[in-house]
Amino acid sequence: MTKATTEFQQQESLAAFDRACKFMPGGVNSPARAFGAVGGKPLFIERAEGPYLYDVDGNQLIDYIGSWGPMIMGHAHPKVVEAIREAALRGTSYGAPTRAETELAELIVEAVPSIEKLRLVNSGTEATMSAIRLARGATGRDKIIKFAGNYHGHADSLLVAAGSSAANLGVPDSPGVTAGTSQDTLVLQYNDAEQLERAFTEHGGQLACVILEPVVGNMGCVPPRPGFLERARELCTQHGTVLIFDEVMTGFRVAYGGAQALYGVTPDLTTMGKIVGGGLPMGLYGGRADLMDQVLPAGKVFQAGTLSGNPLATAAGGAALRLLRDESPYAYLEEQGKRLEVGLHQAATDAGVPHQIQRVGSMMTLFFHDRPVRCWLDASECDRTRFGKYFWGLIEHGVYMPCSQFEALFFSSTHTPQLIDQTVEAAAAVLKSL
Ligand code: KE4
């Protein structure tokens, strides 16, 4: 039975938000949480367990953000919490190497064959920033290619918008990012292999790397078209350009070996985050040993971090990856993903709402668009106003979707078929009202 709209309360969250705004810009520590894309003010969360969030007003919400990806085994998993507790009792950070880091590195190398060596860092941003510096250091080249609608964190060279379509040269996408930084970033359309080929024809010998999300989550869920990843691989090999798969979101999410295992395309470097930290701050970059051995102190490419590989994050990450390796929830997640996809499609169809549902495993997006979404040009045409109404309607039914049309939803191994059905029932009621 879905929650009646009269039960939803927000007074405590509103008070908490007002207080937060006194001390933090926009009252949040990451803009994605501010509900800017859906209107209204954010809910403040008190605690979470399994598939549920509990906010400060006591609302119980079925969670489809999962901390933007990490919580694939559900919130507060006992084995992850216990691992963190045990680690904390031995001290929280030493600033010196530990065997736990090696054990975690070994788990990841075993799971992802293209990763021969890796470096642990503290976020996905650090991972992608470092991988790009390594690609530039290893090739001696300056230019990089990224794709519109792909988000790789907030390093300056990646906060670049698509410039004039002809040149594809980037222009700053945030105050504070210099033209000098942006000029070396080319921004192309995802899934457009011909445009990528033209860029290589024009800039091939100057390209240090191509970085992409092998399944895009950051314009909503956009899978690669058949042949796109393969063509990127061929062109990078042909021109001595480093191919970087940003698997911060897809790593251990779409398969235990990540998107590269699903699509059978091998990058030179991979970046990860989110799930590998088990919900604690962690990222990594890794790949070919001949590249990774160029990172200081083995090589000359500088990168460092006080809390990199810290005992708590490695304990949480190790516990999470061992759970995924031993319990392998991926078949279950695929079943529940199909159930949710079919249910939402039927609900939107019955309501006569134009939509596209795009899904890879347990990451998915319902686009308010009447055609497939293949790239940012498509995604930018979605009906964002309708999405905002859909989002808030679901909140009032106890369902917490990502607070933007341009984010993928995630669910966990603790989301039961009953909760999926309850979500579909709520969506059917909301979609009819749009
Ligand atoms: P972080 O620096 O936020 O750990 O990771 C950056 C990043 C890199 N690459 C990909 C593919 C990512 O999705 C991200 C971060 N994802 C966003 C949500 N789409 C994080 C949410 C937020 O910014 O608060």
Distance between the termini: 21 Å
CATH class of the largest domain: Alpha Beta
Number of strands: 16
CATH architecture of the largest domain: 3-Layer(aba) Sandwich
Oligomeric status: single chain
Low-confidence stretches: 1-6
Ligand kinds: ligand KE4
Name the beta content range.
Answer: 5-15%
Which structural category do the helix and sheet elements fall into?
alpha/beta
- Count of folded domains: 2
Average pLDDT number: 96
Superfamily (CATH H level) name of the largest domain: Type I PLP-dependent aspartate aminotransferase-like (Major domain)
Q: How many helical elements?
A: 14
User: Tell me about the biggest sheet?
Assistant: 7 strands, mixed
Which overall shape is indicated by the principal axes computed on the Cα atoms? globular
Remind me, CATH topology of the largest domain?
Aspartate Aminotransferase, domain 2
- Cα gyration radius (Å): 21 Å
Describe this structure in words.
By secondary structure, the protein is of the alpha/beta class. It has two domains: 11-64 and 329-433, Alpha-Beta Complex (Aspartate Aminotransferase, domain 1); 78-327, Type I PLP-dependent aspartate aminotransferase-like (Major domain) (Aspartate Aminotransferase, domain 2), CATH 3.40.640.10. The chain is built from 14 helices and 16 strands. It has helices at residues 11-23, 78-89, 99-111, 124-139, 179-182, 193-203, 228-239, 259-263, 289-292, 311-327, 330-350, 376-379, 384-395, 417-432; strands at residues 45-49, 52-55, 60-63, 117-121, 143-147, 160-161, 171-172, 185-188, 207-212, 242-246, 269-272, 283-287, 356-360, 363-367, 399-400, 409-410. Helix 2 runs antiparallel to helix 10 (311-327) and helix 11 runs parallel beside helix 14. The longest helix has 21 residues, at 330-350. The two termini are 21 Å apart. Bound molecules: ligand KE4. The site of ligand KE4 has 19 residues, from helix 4. Ligand KE4 is lined by residues 30, 32, 68, 123-125, 128, 151-153, 213, 217-218, 246, 248-249, 273, 283, 407.
